Amino acid sequence: MLCLSRLDCVRNKVWVATFGVLSAGMAVLSSFGLLLYCGMPFAMTVATAPFLILGIGVDDMFIMISCWQQTQVHGDVEDRMAATYKEAAVSITITTLTDALAFYIGLLTPFGSVQSFCMYTGTAVLFCYLYNITFFGAFLALNGRREKSNRHWLTCMKVPEPVENSEKYNICSVGGAYDHGTGKEEPMPINNFFKTYYGPFLTNNWTKGFVILLYAGYLGSSIYGCFQIKEGIDLKNLAADSSYVGSYYDNEDEFFSEYGPNVMVVVTDSEFQYWNESARNSLDSCLQNFESLPMVSQNGTISWLNQYLAFGKMTNLNLSEENTFKRNLSAFLERSDFVQDVNFTDNTIFASRVFIQTVNVSTAVDEKNMLNELRETANDCPVKLVVYHPAFIYFDQYAVIVSNTIQNIVVATLAMLVISLLLIPNPICSLWVTFAIASVIVGVAGFMAFWDVNLDSVSMINLVICIGFSVDFSAHISYAFVSSNKRTANEKAIDAVYHLGYPIIQGAVSTILGVVALSAAESYIFRTFFKIMFLVIVFGAVHGIVFIPVFLSFFGICGAKVGDEEDAGDNPQDNTYQFKQKGNDNIACENNF
């Protein structure tokens, strides 16, 4: 509302901003209501989605209003809406398709929490788009009718128009000012800043050289950070900061760091003959194989079977005989601590377990290696064994998190390339959009390591988000660059940042404001969401208004009609370009770098 407020009582768009945010809120309600009605599981990670959808919806709103302000104020509302949708609809369609597709590709991951988040958020993105081009568009048309009638933004009463060439008028009783030279709304001062100062500064050769050096430093730091990133999630981070679980794990790390999980080795064969000496020797041999592993203590095995055999020896029982073994087993279990270690039902031992003690398991890599080696040892044993510990559900993700993350990123990036090629009428700009996606992903992944964020299922969700958001800013700028009727690549870059530089900053700031509340949350999941979203938005915006315009100016290829030459730019004879006739009515410009 602050960004869209004006001192002019007619051009003020506070209500437009209000309905834009309301449109995003309706998208959250509709998508969540639909999926909950369909029985889709709601994981805790989904609770971060509304913050994200508000950011996406407001971004699209700013783009549509920016295009509306470029139309003729005295034109028919239908014509202004047509011109607005002609420019904005393609741009927000590209970003919606890429965002939604990025989330739905996240369904390929085997993690249920990630699947739930991606389904809810991807559906919300589609609803957000639907409401933006219908509900919000309808209100934009109603607001256009109010502006055309020169009515007050609050009272809807007609007010006198300001006197031409006079900048002094009462903002409460006079309004409807516009640029009489262009017939459009008067641009905001920051728009003029982008056109008059920032654009020419950015396209200066010295500035371009500095931008290239800056990007090289950014890319080098990011790649270095990617090699420093850690895998895995600390179990205490799954609880709130105020939970006693956190202090429990801290004390465990401080006083018992040399010990790892106490892993159970389960005999799952209901036909295993525990009373048979040969079968017992096979089981003992398997346990010795476990104890020979470097991360297993040789003296830490706890076995009910060994204790039972010792009990039989003390009481002169022949436990090598099946009936004697089974007849005395129930009594032994009830008088010992092993009652939960044997499933002895209907005179049959369906399963049993022994415990082995792991040691020197301190990092996520140690945990992954331990899990893999224990499972390989169990598979090599002639006895049917399963190794298990409650923490294995978290260790399991370490084995696949890297491969799944890379798979999702590659598939989504290729999908973004296809969409960009279909909707952006220039293959080189489409490639630059894809390049921006890869660049932002590398930057976010690298700086995650510098901000103490590990690669786990939580951060993997955010990297999927990264794909969708990184395409937003670069797609808007690239499409504006291609659509510009300016002749030279530098002029196209200036024109693109003039029209979309401010909306990109508005969208970036509004999205960060939407998630900044999560930075103070008492949950690791929400704080991680904020950190990565912050990196995504900052890097995406910098790519959109700094890196991409400069890179496009190097490789700019444009097309213009001969009849439009008078609109091509302020300096059509720019000596850095030469124009060649293509056919009868087309001109293509070639960069002479």
From TrEMBL:
The keyword Nucleotide-binding does not apply. PROSITE patterns: SSD. Its main location: membrane. It is found in: Cell projection, Cilium, Flagellum membrane. It holds the Pfam family Patched. One of its GO terms (cellular component) is sperm midpiece. The keyword Cell membrane applies. The chain crosses the membrane at residues 14-36, 42-68, 88-107, 119-142, 398-424, 430-451, 463-482, 502-520, 532-557. Residues 1-142 form the SSD domain. It comes from the Eukaryota. Keywords: Cell membrane, Glycoprotein, Membrane, Transmembrane, Transmembrane helix. It is a multi-pass membrane protein. PANTHER family: PATCHED DOMAIN-CONTAINING PROTEIN 3 (PTHR10796:SF60), PATCHED-RELATED (PTHR10796). May play a role in sperm development or sperm function. However, does not appear to have an essential role in spermatogenesis or male fertility. Belongs to the patched family. This is Patched domain-containing protein 3. It comes from Salvelinus namaycush.
